[in-house]
Amino acid sequence: MSPRGQRKQVVLFLIAVIFPSLVLVALTLRMINQERELSEKRWTEERRRLSSEIGQQLLVRLEKIKLEEMGALESQPEKHREYHYVNPEVVLVGRVEQNRLLLPWELDRRSKEVNRSSGETRFTSKIRQAEEEEFLKKQFARAAELYRESMNEPRLQGQVAFARLSLARVLAKAGHTREAQAHYREILLLPSEVTDEQGIPLSLYAAVHLLERGVEHQTVLQRITSELETTILPSPAEFYILRGLAETLARSGPDGSVRAVAGNIHRRILERISHVEQALELQSDFAHLVLTPSGRREPQSREPVWVPYGEETWLVSLTPSLTGSQPWLLAVQASEILPSLATGSPLSKTFPGKIHLLTDREAEGESLGPNFPGLKVAFVAQKNPISAGPWSLHGYFYLVTLLLVLSVTLFGAYLLWRDVRRELRVAEMRSQFVSSVSHELKTPLTAIRMFAETLRMGRFENPRIKDEYLATIVNESERLSRLLNNVLDFSKIERGKKIYDRKPTSLAGIVEAAARTMQYPLTQLGFKLDVEVENDIPPIRVDRDAMEQAILNLLTNAMKYSGESRRIGLRVKRQNGHALIEVSDEGVGIDAKEQAHIFEKFYRVSTPDNQLIPGAGLGLPLVAHIAKAHGGRVEVRSTPRRGSTFSIHLPLESEG
Ligand code: ADP
Known about the structure:
The chain folds into 3 domains: 1-96 and 334-391, no CATH class; 100-288, Serine Threonine Protein Phosphatase 5, Tetratricopeptide repeat, CATH 1.25.40; 495-651, 2-Layer Sandwich (Heat Shock Protein 90), CATH 3.30.565.10. The protein contains 19 helices and 15 strands. The protein has helices spanning 3-74, 104-117, 121-136, 140-152, 157-174, 177-188, 202-212, 217-230, 236-252, 256-285, 334-344, 347-350, 387-457, 463-495, 507-524, 544-560, 592-595, 608-612, 619-629; strands at 90-97, 100-102, 307-309, 314-319, 328-333, 354-358, 366-367, 376-380, 503-505, 528-533, 540-542, 567-575, 578-585, 633-639, 643-651. Adenosine-5'-diphosphate binds next to helix 16 and helix 19.
């Protein structure tokens, strides 16, 4: 194929294969991209759907809690202290009065104050007298007497306890420790509803005194425990007293178990104190909180609103009172309510990751709807749950197909490129071959003609010159026939028509014939040929002419590429069951890189010196073919500028 044809083939290939595959790549990438965008969009939609579902469920749950709490609360309106929240998630229930939030202990105190103010005057006057004796006059004995008297007045349980507490205190001051402790012990056992004006159970005061004196650790511990269990949200003051008691017990309790239990209780009290403090903050921020959808303070509004509040995140909402008076405020711990929603509902099946509540307005998340202003949810999944589905499988499929198509295309392109390159090289060699052969034919023909014409003129005195001319003509025509033989044989080989006529022949005879043939040109050029033939080589079945032609080719090459050297060796020997015909020179040698190619047809080493030496690149391919046809091979050992040795290895039949 001509180089132009080759180029056309490459262009066609590019159009037919590379271009479509590029289009395919572009389309596939676009498709994968679209798939990804689609899955992102689906996931965004899914998140929205999920968050609105969460919002609805949350609302249902919170409104249920609200209703339950209100129902329970209003069924016992005056007993806030004993009131237990029905739902464990509830952290605060307070009443709103004139735009002010009243916390549980404040509601309680109000009722106590009413009690006190409606108390008996005889009791209160006795108490006042006693306090005068105790604090102003320091008459402890008289004060004790007056406190005792006040206890005998008709009175409420709280008043007796108060008098007894005062009595215990004054007795302690007077040094009647035992008696004082007996009274304190009695007060310690009073129920927690018996409180002072601050709503603090009197028993706690007794506990402080008893602990200071290092007695009644166990009873005080029980007292604190039951106080924590029976009250919902004691006042801050009461909590601080409880904390002090727990601290003392944890530090100086009589034994390890008391100290450990007290330590635990201390931690619980601290948690509750942080609740109380958040409740106080809520109270002071209450006026600024927007707890209705329109921003107006209308708790009767149809749409319930839950807003996040505080570091611990409470969800706070207003609710109209069932009895129609002042509204109530309800706070629920968000961290408690959300997990129960996420685990107990069908949501957990839809979304396998984690769901977080966010209160930061800047944070990225999905809004929970108009009922939860300022509240968002974030979905934390290991990966986009939608793209983890069948879509990614599509993506993989596209990619694999694309890779397959591309690799097939590239492989095809590589094969074609290799083929084209080889063809181009052969084409180039062939054209070189034509010019080399013409040149090689021309040289001997010119010589033959010149010498023949000189002979025809017949003006020779010296018969030696005439002989020499004739010898040259014979030699040149022999060279011509060697060249033509090479070309003809090569063409036969190419067409698969070359037949070797193998008969048992002595290698020594062939080698000697070849040496004889070359003798004239060798001596003409001043070469010395060393011939060595081992004697014990049996006859081998060879095509005599072909083998001689191979040896002649090697000898001709040795002459052509000898450079300055004039020594050539021709040896026949036996080695490892083979007969070896070796032709060696001390000439230009062959580069290791070139050695792999010199047996290819038309191949010529392309050094400038080499270009000047006539040749068609057919000699060695023929030698290789002949050796192979005889079941052998040809090898070369060569060092640049040192010389080369070519050896034909022929198997000895008797040994092989
Ligand atoms: P030609 O001799 O006609 O170029 P050949 O096929 O006989 O073709 O040889 C191929 C190439 O091998 C030569 O061009 C030459 O470069 C290299 N070559 C062959 N024989 C020798 C040798 N004895 N010493 C150095 N180079 C050689």
